[in-house]
Amino acid sequence: MTDSDLFKFERVLNEPSVGAPAGWTIVEGSPVASAWRQHLTEGNRTISGVWSCTRGAFSVSYDKHEFCHILSGACRITRDGGEPVTLGTGDSFIVEAGFKGRWEVLTDMTKHFMFVEP
């Protein structure tokens, strides 16, 4: 938590937490995911930072809303029973709480993320 209502992301990151996010299960390949949490609000209702992952696929289930901006790389996200959506460098998007499906990292990627409790 910060003492300010404005937060600037730092360019130099501390040690990341390594592993799949909560609600994500590896289903293809051996992806390595790392997250640098840079900003937490009181009660952790909002969490933001940088996430990086190598190629592979996850089965995902979201209990929070997530805003993403891809800094590099590409992924394909498919809602259970839906059509795949491919996203890459420069794309921004939101995944709503309740989303269930597949998240495939097509090329090693890095993104800014922000999770918000509904």
Automatic annotation (TrEMBL):
Highest classification ranks of the organism: Bacteria, Pseudomonadati, Pseudomonadota, Alphaproteobacteria, Sphingomonadales
(S)-ureidoglycine aminohydrolase cupin domain mapped to chain residues: 48-113
Residue spans crossing the bilayer: none
Protein name (record): Cupin domain-containing protein
One Pfam family cited in the UniProt record for this chain: Cupin_3
